Batch of 2 targets.
Target 1
Amino acid sequence: MVVNKRRPLQPADFTPDLVRPSVPLATSGEGSLLNPTTARAAEAMFAAATAAGVDMTLASGYRSYATQAAAHAQLVAVQGQDAAEVTSARPGYSEHQTGWALDVGAADDACTFQPCFMDTPAAHWAAAHAHAYGFIVRYPWMQQGTTGYYYESWHLRFIGIEAATDMVRRGVPTLEEYLGLPAAPTY
Ligand SMILES: [Zn+2]
């Protein structure tokens, strides 16, 4: 399942099977849930990060259509339409609604969801090791012309260990390019 600005959820209110992974949580309610496959992979990844002494939390997992609608409307109100569109998905277009995506944070860090997160140990660890657990950094630096979003060092997408490792090995920056899909800079 690939979701971007040209590939909405179908149906728009799609809801995956959801479970709560046993990982350090910085969120509660639906945001602490992932689909079962992603949850198991997240448990392995967070355990490895913890073992490496890296402070990494699950900051946001699943997000329902209704939650995304409210979050996006709030950002449009605060930032204006153009700015909000490159940092937040419209409802029905968010990878968080699939259950395959999660945002990592750091418990002792003010940079969660901020550009400065890229300089944290959690972001460095994820960039170097997430693929070994099946995750990719889905919105890399300067790839907004393909992904439709500015760099998010915290947003990881599960695609499986084999595919994630292959993407990194071949230096393919985006899932769109890896799968031969059209770029999705805008809706
Ligand atoms: Zn995210």
Note: The two ends are 18 Å apart (CA to CA).
Target 2
Amino acid sequence: MKCVSAKMVQRKNAIYLEKYCTIHGSQTELLEEDADYFIKRRGFDKPGTDCRRQTKTKKGCPFDCGLCPQHAQHTCIGLIEVTNTCDLRCPMCYAASGVGEFLSLEVIERMMNVYIDSEFEPPEILQISGGEPTLHPNILEIIDLGRKKGFKYVMLNTNGLRLAKDEEFVRKLAAFDRGFEVYLQFDGLNPKALRRLRGKDVGAEKKRAIERLTHHRIPTTLVATIAHGVNDGDIGAIVKLGLDIPGIRGVNFQPMAFFGRMPDKVSTQERITLTGIIQRIEEQTEGLLQKSDFVPLPCDVDRVALTYLRKEKMGKWIPLPREIDLRQFVPAIKNTFAFALDDAIDIKAARGCDCFKGPLRLMNLLADTALLRTLQQRAKYLNENLFRISITSFLDAYNFDLKAMQKECVHVITPDGRKIPFSAYNMIHRKAV
Ligand code: SF4
Ligand code: SF4
């Protein structure tokens, strides 16, 4: 695999990458479906946060992962794949998971230490992933270890099948309480789409997993992989379902990338982009959300967009950017992929902003939560009254953009002690690739 230079061109309101390779010839790739957002997002860009590096610059990006000295962002989410065993065989699986091995607790602890040692401040989010991590015989000990190591959040990235059938396991997860969250794979409930993405209709299992998680009050984010022409018509329904279920803290949409078990992409029409998902959210939520409600995450403007909604007393949801101009907060928004609003905003820095009107309104909003006495009351308030919608896009061999890659903040921790940006890992560094 080689990098080729490319230029970005705008046609109508979309942005394309145009490139030429001496072996494969000319290629045009859809980069974003909304040029206005693409252009405006630069206004949110912030320099990255430094961290310790594990490799040296030798062959150049993206072959030196990592992190190498060229990388421009610390780790917002450190991901440990504890197994490549899985009880599904999703046709779109990035990891091409199936029958595999389980990492030992000793190796997993070493990987957690790599993450901790590389950050100059306490690390934020540890994501336990796979394969299907709930199949690991020591999964509860792994989560417990992550919490004891002091990660602010430990997330379990699961397809939910074990949660659907093993209530005792869910009860044990609930005991982890604050700082533990489930990232539940949920691509909607359309049987045809589920068969295409997951190999079978797993809708009933997903519903049961959600019932169990909410019954045991485990904070949960629904994670939807969106494929063009498969489930991009279900985006609005997924948002509404999340908003209607107390205990669901948010939805994360991921435009499908072309690596792993996915066959080679044949046409640019098959791609859906970050801005394409925002457009469909506007089209499919009947005025509840608009494109202008979404802002780029300053630590990674190319790949992450998000919004928060606040629940009013009558149960109506209001997107926060309609009440507060979040651009005023760019200096105060931390380089983090935090879950709660008060994690994401540095309150002291927000107070120092030139324009007081917006920050004061934000402070008033957060003061509601600060007045609640116990951590449990505060967590409950945030769970029930804030909802986050985020979109995270990945880079594959077709839409590869070196500058965006170097800002990527979701890093896979490898057993040999490296941290590799998620897209680079799936594109070239994963063993099976
Ligand atoms: S993606 Fe980041 S870590 Fe990997 S080679 Fe490029 S700059 Fe280095
Ligand atoms: S995408 Fe997830 S659930 Fe599906 S096969 Fe891969 S690891 Fe398993």
Note: The domain at 6-309+386-429 is CATH 3.20.20.70 (TIM Barrel).
